[in-house]
Specification:
It is a single chain. This protein starts with 15 loop residues before the first helix and ends with a helix. α3 packs across α4. The protein is mainly alpha-helical. The radius of gyration is 17 Å and the shape is globular. It is built from six helices and three strands; from the N terminus they run ααβααββαα. The protein has a three-stranded antiparallel sheet.
Length: about 120
């Protein structure tokens, strides 16, 4: 099968290096917080800055990098710029990273608890 018709998860996949670039893009706490905030939907730079506790200028720089990496999309409305996640994949990656972090702190992380299992799994999907 042609590589361009199927996303290969083999260790020799042509996508491995690009996946590393995605992880590098997500290796910043502010960018992870931005993605977590954008799970709820489109937000302006000012609203995101307030939400993640950073200046609008700093958030704009992070958003520019996320936009270049095609993780977020932007929309202009007058002088305001609104951002949203480009697709569900960054949301899933961040959710899985949070779940993995929970394992580092607990032998029985909250996302494995019966009462939380279904919502956690749904969030990761």
């Amino acid at each position: 099968m042609h590589a361009d018709t199927k996303c290969s998860l083999d260790e020799d996949s042509e996508y491995v290096e690009l996946a590393v670039e995605v992880f590098a893009m997500l290796a910043d706490a502010t960018r992870v917080r931005i993605i977590l905030a954008l799970r709820e939907g489109e937000m302006s730079v000012g609203a995101l800055a307030e939400r993640v506790g950073k200046s609008a200028a700093a958030v704009s720089q992070h958003l520019a990098k996320l936009r270049l990496a095609r993780i977020v999309l932007s929309r202009h409305e007058g002088t305001r710029v609104y951002y949203r996640l480009a697709d569900e994949h960054a949301r899933h990656l961040v959710a899985e990273a949070i779940f993995q972090a929970q394992h580092a702190l607990s032998e029985n992380p909250v996302h494995h608890a019966p009462a939380h299992h279904a919502p956690a799994q749904e969030e990761a999907r």
